[in-house]
């Protein structure tokens, strides 16, 4: 397989595009596509875990349900059903014969047609899957509060996972890296803690999990939902969804990110303040271990979240 432009990527042989499986080299779009110029696209990030000869894809349906919700907010009609795209994903994973963990990226975007800003051009859909390991350092990361704020919910549809939105997170994550940090934490338009540049955030205080509510300026994360469910049902922890003030980040007992790519990533330092004792917290460790068992389909109660491919 060809080596990707960034050392850690090995490009797959095949991509699913507008109803067909095409070779990686053929999966191209025209420079005139609307989505390239105006950010008119929606996407998802889904993980597959290779375990014992099976690829186990986590919450596949839930991700595609969110893709369709995001598309509807942009007036975009995806010309396939959810079942079509689930089957396309399974076919794509099979034909690529992956033998390692993977990351799956469905994307739907306005394609060729009028160049006008309000043009409702036909929607192109592609699904890319590639081998993918850890996104952030599993032993813990150092974060900083970004100088970039989340926009207010009445200015951009935060609830939708829009391609164009990610220019904000691109800037925030570059800024964090330039200042020597692993990831950025963004505040919302009123100065409360929102989320990372690609993750939801949790803090632990006195054995209670706290995370911003979905009606705040955050993406309603599927991993966030998984962790809240597991914390309550399996660990008997209290979970409070409320606004978090910036200074609570500095004084909490534990902190971690959740996200498909990030999975559950411990945060060990924020703006030069060590979180807890600077190591993975006791509750964070329990959640990491439990999450791993669940995504590998080893806890029967959550098997419905797994799509297994032999
Ligand atoms: C570059 C975007 C990567 C993408 N980020 C997902 C993501 C999340 C977590 O959502 P979920 O748990 O549903 O994944 C939260 N918030 C933002 C801004 C995100 O981009 C991911 O695949 O994790």
Q: Please state roughly what percent of the residues sit in beta strands, choosing from under 5%, 5-15%, 15-25%, 25-35%, 35-45% or over 45%.
A: 25-35%
Radius of gyration: 19 Å
Order of helices and strands: EEHEEEHHEEEHEEEEHEHEEEHE
Structural class per helix/strand content? alpha+beta
Stretches where pLDDT is under 50 for at least 5 consecutive residues are 1-6
Anisotropy-based shape? globular
- What's the N-to-C terminus distance? 21 Å
State the share of residues found in helices, binned by percent.
25-40%
Overall residue-averaged pLDDT value: 96
Number of strands: 17
**Quick one: biggest sheet?**
9 strands, mixed
Tell me the number of helical segments per DSSP (H or I, 4 or more residues long).
7
Bound molecules: 2-[O-phosphonopyridoxyl]-amino-pentanoic acid
Offer a concise description of the structure.
This protein is an alpha+beta fold and 310 residues long.
Task: Explain what the structure shows.
- The chain has seven helices and 17 strands.
- By secondary structure, it is α+β, with helices and mostly antiparallel strands.
- A hairpin with a 2-residue loop joins strand 11 (200-205) and strand 12.
- Strands 8, 9, 10, 11, 12, 13, 14, 15 and 16 form a nine-stranded mixed β-sheet that branches. Strands 1, 2, 3, 4, 5, 6, 7 and 17 form an eight-stranded antiparallel β-sheet that branches.
- 25% of the residues lie in helices and 28% in strands.
- Bound molecules: 2-[O-phosphonopyridoxyl]-amino-pentanoic acid (PY5).
- 2-[O-phosphonopyridoxyl]-amino-pentanoic acid (PY5) is lined by residues 45, 169, 195, 198-200, 219, 221-224, 258-262.
